[in-house]
Amino acid sequence: MPEWSIGAVSKTAVRKNRGFESLFFLLSAISILSFMQLSELETIIKSGEDSKHQFKENFINASKLAAEIVAFSNGSGGQIFIGVRDNGEINGLNLNDISRLNQLISNVCSQNVRPAINPITENITTPNGLVLVITVPQGISKPYSDQSGIFWTKTGADKRSASSREEILRLVQSSAAIHADETLIPATSEKSIDVLYFSSFFTEQYGSAPSDSGIPFKKLLENINLLKGENLNLAGALLFSKQPQIILPSFIIKAVVFNGTDITETDYSDSRDISGRLEEQFNGALSFLVNNTKTSQGGRSVNSIGVPEIPKIVFEELVVNAIIHRDYFTNAPIRILIFDNRIEIINPGHLPNSLTVENILFGNSNIRNPVIASFAAKILPYRGLGSGILRSIKAYPKIEFKDDRDGNLFVATVWR
């Protein structure tokens, strides 16, 4: 059996008494670790480097090792294979190398990575020498940085520094420390609210008008988590302000009908920028999709209502999921692209945290924007039960989903 160790790394954490976080991180690492056999190692190497596996001939520089570990911690975790060249050739390590590297890993993870982390190391014997495998779990205290304060992230098999404010905020969001929809929006106040629209909503939900509550309007908005201090948060602005796109111009839906099957087509038959409050965006997108897809007689009489090629509930579920679960730290619109053979609904932001396409197909969900989601359940056809994707597939099975983590996109493709 291969040798593995939590070694000096975990001992350092215990000596520092970092408490629950260190224990959780350690247990997470152990839970994803399986004792790797030589055949498994060879299979991974043959497949080449990707976002979960990195090959390194050796490490001497602590800063370079820290950057690799930070990138995996800020992503979905992964493994570093030391003793393997970039081309997949195993150069191997000796026992002196292993001893030195374990000490280097211990020092790096406690001193060069912030906050400190606790990976697992495993030694695998090969005909060409030992390969040391470092298993780095996904971090629970994102964002992580190196000793220079650089936040490294994974882009495919490569790493890069996270430089933009929005990207760093996304890392914080993934640890559930902050949510985009709670971000305060400058130049907004309670006066930005569309009072008639909000009053109608409030009266329907609570049985009386806001003015009858006896609570000052500003305090009322604070109590229902739409305003803090002097400013509306993002949820308040997108849900209830008069003209949200004046201050939030990126948060719209761009819809295009192409004549053909490729986005490079220069001819289109319809194009629209769908703006307004989230309810207006939902209704506008739904109308655009219904009006630009076909209906057929379906064997019925000439006086019957046509049968839509794609059930309306499919569009309802996919659009509402896009609006509620999009990454609002990304300044980009939702895109609806209609082609001759398919419809693509492209959402800014990949699936949050460790959620996968396989998870959502079994009804799992993760709420990225809790304030928007809580109000959406009262305004839009959304219940927050994780059943929307399942319902759309049941109504129309020819739907594919792609979680593009490198491009920070989630794409739903409905084949016509």
Describe the structure in your own words.
The chain is an alpha+beta fold and 416 residues long. The strands form 6 sheets. A 6-stranded mixed beta sheet has the order 13-12-16-17-19-18, covered by helices on one side. It has a 5-stranded mixed beta sheet with strand order 1-5-6-3-2, sandwiched between helices. The protein contains 15 helices and 19 strands. It has 3 domains: 3-174, Schlafen, AAA domain (Methyltransferase, Cobalt-precorrin-4 Transmethylase, Domain 2, 2-Layer Sandwich), CATH 3.30.950; 180-247, no CATH class; 253-415, Heat Shock Protein 90 (2-Layer Sandwich). The termini are far apart.
- CATH topology of the largest domain, anyone? Methyltransferase, Cobalt-precorrin-4 Transmethylase, Domain 2
Gyration radius, in Å: 26 Å
Apparent shape? globular
Termini Cα gap? 52 Å
Portion of residues within helices? 25-40%
Q: Count of helices?
A: 15
Provide the structure class. Answer: alpha+beta
Instruction: Report the uncertain regions.
Output: 4-21, 27-34
Oligomeric grouping of the chains: single chain
Strand order of the largest sheet: 13-12-16-17-19-18
Largest sheet: 6 strands, mixed
CATH architecture of the largest domain: 2-Layer Sandwich
CATH class of the largest domain: Alpha Beta
- Give the amount of beta strand, in percent: 15-25%
Count of individual beta strands: 19
Question: CATH homologous superfamily of the largest domain - what is it?
Answer: Schlafen, AAA domain
What number of domains?
3
